[in-house]
Every structure is written in structure tokens, then in C-alpha cells.
Automatic annotation (TrEMBL), chain B:
Domain of life, source organism: Bacteria
Subunit structure comment from the entry: Homodimer. Forms a membrane-associated complex with FtsX.
A single MF term (Gene Ontology): ATP binding
Full protein name: Cell division ATP-binding protein FtsE
Membrane topology: Peripheral membrane protein
Hydrolase as UniProt keyword: no
Residue ranges of domain ABC transporter in the record: 2-219
InterPro entries according to UniProt: AAA+_ATPase, ABC_transporter-like_ATP-bd, ABC_transporter-like_CS, ABC_transpr_LolD-like, Cell_div_FtsE, MacB-like_ATP-bd, P-loop_NTPase
Gene name, Swiss-Prot/TrEMBL: ftsE
Organism of this sequence: Bosea minatitlanensis
Claim: Chaperone is one of the keywords in the record: no
Gene3D superfamilies xrefs: P-loop containing nucleotide triphosphate hydrolases
Compartments in which it is found: Cell inner membrane; Cell membrane
Example GO biological process: cell division
NCBIfam families hit by this protein: FtsE
Length: 319, 219
């Protein structure tokens, strides 16, 4: 550098250089009120998206459990008929079922057990001898086996006209449809929330650009190209997105874990049994937690990508 | 280095604020750009900086017609220029050191590679003890010197300074002028926009005089 008579170099020139001069400050201000508000919005949206993803995973797991439990069983119901001996009909149906290929075990539910099934509706202490209570036969299928139900059903009806074969296909179909609807709804909600997050980031970026217009101009004048400026904004919004996404994701994981804890805490209540029958053990497992984490990462990635696109678009308009 | 031919500029559908501007700036030259307040000095500077596009005429910069420049070339040209704004335009959230190092940082250079150079320049302009301060706590003169240091750190071929002595006392103004003269001697073309006649009397140099939108060169 030139020496001047009036601008004498400071005598401190020989001083050692200060360590750590640069604070790695971003070139566009980050810790603004708008930045914090955006982070809160991202956290809330991530929380909602993560809960939806968790619910979808829960429904998928529960549906798998239902289908697994229901599809490896069939039941035969023998209706009472005053002209026929029900015990003989049960024995005949059991014999026919045992002869069917693909059946692992056949169990005729004892009358006492059948009567017990009616207790929730009729109460205890009733004499059900006079009541025409149907009898059940449970057929457990061998894993992977597909018994010839199309032939067995009519053959059974022919031998035992009061028998009704139920292979649970209707139930499986209905449960599958319900589970698929829940999963699809969860997926749509996640998509909507991610779209909302993208729009929020786009508006925030435009606001930040408008607020930093002078800084952007200075950066241009000191030789920064559009890519550099876009990267600066992108890294700022990725950081905000990561912080917001992490906060929302952690809150969602805590909420899901808390609901799981409540479910296990009340597992002895009759309502809890029904809930458990519907939703399984209320655990989303590693897949669920991975889905929540993925949502948080996707939110951060969206924040970075959308801000970059918005900045590039804005800079093109300025040019 | 810079050549304007019949350049005119109007904002929107308004009247022309600059009319038939013709001048050229040679390498290693020194000139004042002067005229009354509102004459269009800053606008002309922004045209040279390619922050504005002329509505007519030819602007030639470093041998190229700027109307045909693509974005990378425009950025490359700006890296060959240094600019001192009238209102300094220091980034408020950065320290003096970070502001001065900005032109090197945007080039993607490692901080370790320019630290000594920036510190030396800061000491040279008398801001060695203020390098950790943010602009909000600097005096007008300190901000001015920080802005000048930022314009110089990239060793520009062309320096544009808009009213660089407008916020400082006459003594500091003279010292800053001496600084610009020395830069010119080191090979930088210097354009100083000012309406301070006393300052221009200290060092005689060609004057680009703007009045009523027209420019004439007073050699």
C-alpha cells in the first residue's frame, strides 16, 4: 500500500495480527424478528406434517396387524335349528374342515366360551340354555396356504345347511380400504403442509430480499454474482429451516411418545382395549420416527430450495 | 477505459435527466465529476457502475459495449472497479474488518489468505484499532475511511468516489484527496464526484461538469 506523509502507517503495524477476526457472520442478517417468526412457522408446520406422517405410519402398521390376524383365520358359524342336532353339525363341519387342504388346526369353540362372548351385551348370570346361540368353529390356516374355499363353501352348506363360512375377506377389504384412506389422507396433509411451508418461505424470502435490497446492491457492487447472493440467502433459510424443522420434529416425536405412554398407561381400561384393537400398540416404530425425521429434513431442504429460486427470480427482476 | 457517446437517461416517461453525455476516462487518470446538487452526478456514477441502463447512446467499459454484456462479464467488470458511496453503504451487522474484506470474501478467497492485507490497509487508513467495531458506533469520518478501504482492497483499475469528503472535516478531506492522488499514481483511474470547490482547488485535474442534464469537460 502507498505511504503518505499525512496518512502515516500506525506504529502498531508490526503488532501481531488479531486472531479470529472474522466471525463467520452471514452477509444477509439472520437473527431478525421476521427470521424468528419464520422459524416458528416452520416449526409448527413441521410438527403438523410430522404428526400426519406418524399417524399414517401408525395406520399402516395397525392395518398390517389387522390383515395378518384376520387373513390367516376363517370361521364357520353353525346356527341352531330345532330340527337338527347342533353338536352333530359341529362335529360334521369340524371333520370336513380338517379334511381341507391348507388348514393347520380346527377348533370348535366350546358352548361356554360362546356364551361368554355374549356377556358384554346380555350381562353375567343369565341362563343361556334356552337361547339359540350359534356355535363357532375357528379354522387356522397354514402360512401361505390358499384353501379351495370356492369348493369347500358349497360342500359345507350341502352337508350342514345351517353353516355359514366366513373367510373374513369382506373385513380385510374394508379394513384395507380404511387404512389406505388414512394413509392417503396423511400423505395429502403432509403434502399440503409442505406446500404451505414452501409458500411461507417464499414470502419470507421476498420480504428479506426487499429488506436487504441495499445489502444486495452493495454485494453486487463489490463483485458478488447472483449465485453467490442466492447461496447466502439459501444458507440462511436452510439454517432457519433446519432449526424450525428440528424443533417441530422433536416436538412431534415427544407428542407421539407421550400418546404412546398414555395408551400403555390406560391399557387396562376397556376403551383402551378397543383402541388397541384398532391401532395396535400405538407405536410408530423406527419407520415412524424415520418418517418424522425425513419430514424435518424435507422442510429444511424445501426452505433452502424455495429461497434460492425466489432469490434468483428476484435478482433477475432487479437486473 | 470508460467511454460515453450520446448517452441519455430518463426515468419512466419523465424528462431526460441526462442528455447527450459524451466523455471518456483514460487509465491512470484523475478527474472530478462536479455540478450542483441534483445535477445527476450520482446517476452518472450508477451508469458507469452498470446499475442503470441508459435509455439511449453507447456506454463502453473496458473496451466493451455494456448493453451486450452477459451477467458473468458484468460481475467481472465490477470486480475491476471500486466504489465509495456517498452514504458509505457499510453492512451494519458486519464489523469494519468484515466490511473491508467483503470484496475478497465474495471472490471466495480463504480468510487466512487476505487477513494480513486487510489489517494492513485498515491500519493504513487509521482504523487499526476499530476493526472489530460495527458501523453503528463509528464516526462519519471513520465510516468514510472504512468505505474507502473497502473500495481499495481489491486493487481496482477504476475508482469511483461519490462525495467522499462530504462527511468529514476539511483536514480529513484533504488527507483523503491525497490518498486518491496516490492511488492514481499507483495506476488506478479515479473519478471523484464532488461539489466542493475548495477541494478541487487543492489538486488541479480535469473536471466533468454536469448542469441541466448536460456534461462538459473543463480541462
Amino acid at each position: 500500500m502507498p505511504e503518505t506523509a499525512e496518512y502515516e502507517p500506525e506504529p502498531a503495524r508490526e503488532k501481531p495480527l488479531p486472531v479470529n477476526l472474522r466471525r463467520d457472520q452471514p452477509l444477509v442478517p439472520v437473527d431478525t424478528v421476521a427470521g424468528r417468526a419464520l422459524m416458528a412457522v416452520i416449526a409448527i408446520l413441521t410438527f403438523l406434517a410430522a404428526l400426519s406422517a406418524g399417524a399414517a405410519v401408525l395406520a399402516a402398521r395397525a392395518s398390517e396387524q389387522w390383515r395378518g390376524a384376520v387373513s390367516d383365520e376363517m370361521t364357520i358359524q353353525i346356527r341352531p335349528d330345532s330340527h337338527r342336532g347342533i353338536e352333530e353339525d359341529v362335529a360334521r363341519a369340524v371333520a370336513m374342515a380338517q379334511a381341507l387342504d391348507g388348514i393347520e388346526s380346527v377348533r370348535a369353540v366350546p358352548k361356554a366360551e360362546s356364551d361368554k362372548l355374549l356377556e358384554p351385551w346380555l350381562g353375567t348370570g343369565l341362563d343361556l340354555v334356552e337361547l339359540p346361540v350359534p356355535r363357532l368353529i375357528v379354522l387356522k390356516l397354514r402360512p401361505g396356504a390358499t384353501p379351495d374355499i370356492a369348493r369347500f363353501g358349497p360342500a359345507l352348506r350341502k352337508e350342514v345347511p345351517t353353516a355359514i363360512l366366513d373367510d373374513h375377506r369382506l373385513w380385510v377389504r374394508r379394513l384395507s380400504a380404511m387404512a389406505s384412506t388414512i394413509i392417503f389422507s396423511g400423505f395429502v396433509v403432509v403434502l399440503l403442509v409442505l406446500t404451505a411451508a414452501a409458500l411461507a418461505v417464499a414470502f419470507a424470502t421476498r420480504g428479506a430480499m426487499a429488506g436487504s435490497r441495499e445489502s444486495v446492491e452493495v454485494l453486487h457492487f463489490v463483485g458478488a454474482d447472483d449465485d453467490f447472493i442466492a447461496r447466502e440467502f439459501q444458507s440462511r433459510f436452510i439454517r432457519l429451516g433446519l432449526r424450525g424443522g428440528a424443533a417441530g420434529g422433536v416436538a412431534a416425536i415427544v407428542a407421539i411418545a407421550f400418546l404412546g405412554f398414555l395408551a400403555s398407561f390406560w391399557s387396562t381400561a376397556p376403551e383402551a382395549e378397543q383402541l388397541q384393537a384398532l391401532f395396535g400398540a400405538f407405536e410408530i416404530g423406527w419407520a415412524g420416527y424415520a418418517a418424522v425425521l425425513l419430514v424435518a429434513i424435507v422442510v429444511a431442504a424445501i426452505a433452502g430450495l424455495v429461497s434460492r429460486i425466489t432469490v434468483r427470480h428476484y435478482l433477475k427482476m432487479l437486473a | 477505459m470508460v467511454r460515453f457517446e450520446n448517452v441519455g437517461l430518463r426515468y419512466g416517461m419523465g424528462p431526460e435527466v441526462l442528455k447527450d453525455i459524451n466523455f471518456s476516462i483514460e487509465p491512470r487518470s484523475f478527474q472530478y465529476l462536479t455540478g450542483p446538487s441534483g445535477a445527476g452526478k450520482t446517476t452518472l456514477m450508477r451508469l458507469i457502475l452498470m446499475a442503470l441502463k441508459p435509455t439511449r447512446g453507447l456506454v463502453n467499459l473496458f473496451g466493451q459495449d455494456v448493453s451486450r454484456l452477459d451477467a458473468p462479464t458484468l460481475t467481472a467488470f465490477r470486480r475491476r472497479m471500486g466504489v465509495v458511496f456517498q452514504d458509505f453503504r457499510l453492512l451494519d451487522h458486519l464489523t469494519v474488518y468484515e466490511n473491508v474484506a467483503l470484496p475478497l470474501r465474495v471472490l471466495g478467497k480463504e480468510e487466512a489468505s487476505y487477513r494480513a492485507e486487510v489489517v494492513e490497509l485498515l491500519r493504513w487508513v487509521g482504523l487499526g484499532e476499530r476493526m472489530h467495531a460495527v458501523p453503528a458506533v463509528l464516526s462519519g469520518g471513520e465510516k468514510q475511511r472504512a468505505a474507502i478501504a473497502r473500495a481499495l482492497i481489491g486493487r481496482p483499475e477504476l475508482l469511483l468516489a461519490d462525495e467522499p469528503t462530504g462527511n468529514v472535516d476539511p483536514g480529513l478531506g484533504r488527507r483523503l484527496l491525497r490518498l486518491f492522488m496516490e492511488l492514481q499514481q499507483l495506476g488506478t483511474a479515479v473519478i471523484i464526484a464532488t461539489h466542493d470547490l475548495n477541494l478541487m482547488d487543492i489538486y488541479d485535474a480535469p473536471r466533468l461538469v454536469l448542469a441541466d442534464g448536460h456534461l462538459h469537460v473543463d480541462a
